[in-house]
Amino acid sequence: MNSIIIVQMAVSGALMGLVYALIAYGFQLTYATSKSINFGQGELVMLSAFFSLTLLDAGLPYWLMVPGGLLFGAMMGLVVERACVRLSLEQKSEGWILLTIIFGLLSFSAAENIWGRDDRPFPSPISADAFNVFGISITPLELSVAIGVFAVMGLIELFKHKTLLGKAFEAVSADRDAAELMGISATRTIMLSFGLSGMVAAMAGILISPITTVGPTMASALILKAFSVAVVAGLDSGFGVVLIGIALGALESLTSFYLGSGWREAPGLILLIMALALRPNGVFGKANIRKV
Amino acid sequence: MLKRLLLLRGTELVALVLLASIPLVVNNSYALGLLTLLTIYGILLIGLDVTVGYLGQVNLAQAAFLGLGAYAAGLSVTVLGFGIPAALGVSMLIGLVMGALLAFPALRLEGPQFALATLSFSALCTTVLNEWESLTGGAQGLSLSRPAMLGHAMKASGFYWLCLVLLALVWMAMRNLLSSQWGRAFEALRDSPIATDAMGVGTFRHKVAGFALGSSLGGLAGGLYAFNFEYLQPQTFNYDMMVVLLLGVVLGGRKSLWGAFFGASLIVLLPNLLSSRLLFEIISGLGFLLAVVAGGRGLLKKTTQPFQAIAPVVAMGILVAGGFMVENTENWRKAIFALMLFSVVVGLPDGIMGFAAQYLARLFGIKSAALPAASMLDDVLPANTRDLGVLLELKNLKRYFGGVKAVDGVSISIQKGHVHGLIGPNGSGKSTVVNVISGLYAPTSGEVLLLGKPLPAGSLFSVARAGVSRTFQNLQLFGELSALDNVMLALKDAYRIPVLLVLLGFSRAEDRRAQAEALALLELAGLADQARVRAKDLTYGSQRFLEIARALARKPELLILDEPAAGLAHPDVAVLVEMIRTIKRRGITTILIEHHMDVVSKLCDQVTVVDGGQVIARGTPDEVNRDPQVIKAYLGVVPDEIIPA
């Protein structure tokens, strides 16, 4: 009996972990092109979720809301790139860390005042009635999260490998200067990566909100775990985030079961610090040679 | 000189006296509370400025150290029954130890990874303080009462004076420390960790020390915080507070004690300013005007990019417009912080104090402190031409990168006092050879012997300490430091005073001597009149010469010059040749990597030619010039008849 509960906890946790993996994947997209990430990405997830909820409240059907929410996320991603990242990259400074933190703060405050401080339910046409697989109950809603995560990541990977624009993306990731010499605009490619990253964040918000509800504080809960997944897997690890995301989700769920829900953040944080100390490039990342 | 001292120290003294006398004149417990908080935040921000300003890292853990210090003091009093001094000592110690512990894993990290490590640490601290209910009381909070000190009950004004005295002490100690070798090292490792190691200064120890120091001040501030509020809750020390602290440091001005103080006043006063609508309108209006003026000036003078000028104006414009639209500005507190912080980060990177300091210095005509007379070069670099024999020996040295054999079995022996040329086509492995010698890479196999003893493998720092000094093909100067500071930082055996005495201000004499020695080396490089110029503002040629002067400050047994003439204009090459001749007369053994054959011919006693990671020729410059293998390596296959006999 007990072992069934453990497996149940692990599976539910792992499905949540996929959402962390999706947000971490959004970090990878921008890190690849510009070596920068949006520290306000959690707020971006939250803003997109609130915006999508507003679309639903305005009477838009669910399946039309999704592209609307994604578009909003992509546009916010572009705003982050223009307002917080581009100048620092031009100056080769790390000012973007502070500026994206500021973006998060502004978004948080705006959301608090526009949509209120309370958590709100997020309707979804997908059923939350569980069915049993080998004694473990899974809801179609949870399954839709998994499908959504893999669909988005798969489509973006397909785009990167099959289209010309995608190739440009890969080229800038590999060597920005060389790509520019070949006539690829690095600035546009970085914009593209931030747009995609914002879209991925919006998708994460739409997928997870029916399960967790929407509220201003959802940002901080998600972002730390997404950071953990991204760093532990490595910021250039590709699908490595999926494995780490699943593992961390399961671990976190078990921790909160055994030690109490107050500790559920702890394993991710400890893993993140340990990973940074022992393998700064992540479990699946590649080490760089120092050059002078 | 006297004027400078009078103005700088005088302002500090006047400020201190003013602050100290306020409770005597004004009897208002609310104002006194604000003042106490101001001193506490002052200490906290001075600590944060070490990492954010000097080390140049985004540190998101200072709020956590405030919390740890506060709980440490609180528990010392409630559980252990300590008095105020002992409890504050515990707070500082906790900050110091936890800071050092966090610094170790965070040590290898830069930029975003460092920010993430500190962010995780903060979140972890909040979790532990919240969940360890048996000790901290968890979310219920921890109550304590301020114990008596020296037999007297601590009243509000007495406690304020205690905080003020501590702030003054911290201020003086940090001023001493940051103007010493330690402060230079903190800044250097922000600009170039590689050069910091290669100059024997040590990235490791200074990063840990800087971070631990900043954290211990955070702990001390935490202890005072606990005694001020007499009630603690874990949620206080969260991410929001951290952002507010960053706001204080950045807005006030990085790398400035006054900036930290200004930032602290701002943090303390801001909630009050926001609660009054009129004050808010005035402040946002002033901010908007400042943004317009500063941005407009920058655009006219073409010193700033359009985005840098326009974005703050837009942000402050939103602030002003928003002020009219929303009902309650208090609710939008974070958004207001965000907009102000954004404008400052983009538009005034040096913060308000950085901006004001330049202006004030010009207004009062304050000049930099005068420099001492340069030492004699003979004292700084004693000529040593007596010793003979082998200085450096490479035995079958190999270094592979994956499948690439960059260096594949190189053996060289270098005589004392020689200038030894190392030449070869691009990609032949010469840079890798010197990178292995200087410790940037560990060899895959083979030996490097200096005076018969093996050099440490794979550590720039240890190799530098063993007497090898180098320059870099791609310059690795400390750009934000002056030319003088660049050389002073590298000076060998110049700093012996232990850190505790440095804090007390006993390093001035030592620093004067170092200045004199560094000036002698700058004279050698022809840069004596540009001693106070920031390295990144020097011309390209001067930067190359500065790197050589800095390498000489190590007083090395072996000097490695990695393509010193690369990119130099013709007249500068002549200066360089003269400079290397002077160095040679001092008896310093030099390895010279160079592509200019005329430079090599003029200077080198012996030349080794490498190609494909192997030695293909060695001898005097003339011999090597005629070697058919060498000609083939440089020019491709050449018909027999045109090879000179």
Question: What distinguishing features does this structure have?
Answer:
heterodimer, A: 292 residues, 11 helices, 2% strand, B: 645 residues, Rossmann fold, 27 helices, 12 strands, 10% strand
How many β-strands of chain A, per DSSP?
A: 2
Helix content of chain B: 55-70%
> For the terminal residues of chain A, how far apart are their CA atoms?
60 Å
Oligomer category:
heterodimer
Helical element count of chain B? 27
**Shape of chain B from CA axes?**
elongated
Shape of chain A: globular
Strand content of chain B: 5-15%
The Rg value of chain B, from CA coordinates, equals: 29 Å
Q: Tell me the CATH superfamily of the largest domain in chain B.
A: P-loop containing nucleotide triphosphate hydrolases
Report the strand count of chain B: 12
What's the number of helices of chain A? 11
Q: What is the architecture of the largest domain in chain B at the second tier of CATH?
A: 3-Layer(aba) Sandwich
Structural class of chain B: alpha/beta
Detail the poorly predicted runs of chain A.
Answer: none
Task: Name the strands of the widest sheet of chain A in spatial order.
Answer: 1-2
* Percent in strands of chain A: under 5%
Average pLDDT of chain B, rounded to a whole number, is: 87
Could you characterize what this model shows?
The complex is a heterodimer of chains A (292) and B (645). Chain A is mostly helical and 292 residues long. Chain A has a domain at 18-216. Helix content of chain A is 74%, strand content 2%. Chain A has a two-stranded antiparallel ribbon. In chain A, α1 (2-34) crosses α6 (164-174), α2 packs across α9 (218-233) and α5 packs across α6. The longest helix of chain A has 33 residues, at 2-34. The radius of gyration of chain A is 19 Å and the shape is globular. The longest helix of chain B has 27 residues, at 203-229. In chain B, α3 (62-78) packs antiparallel against α4 (84-106) and α20 (483-490) crosses α22. With 645 residues, chain B is α/β, with parallel strands linked by helices. Chain B folds into three domains: 16-237, no CATH class; 257-367; 385-642, 3-Layer(aba) Sandwich (Rossmann fold), CATH 3.40.50. A six-stranded mixed β-sheet of chain B has the order 8-9-10-5-11-12, sandwiched between helices. At the A-B interface, α3, α4, α9 and α11 of A face α4, α5, α11, α14 and α15 of B.
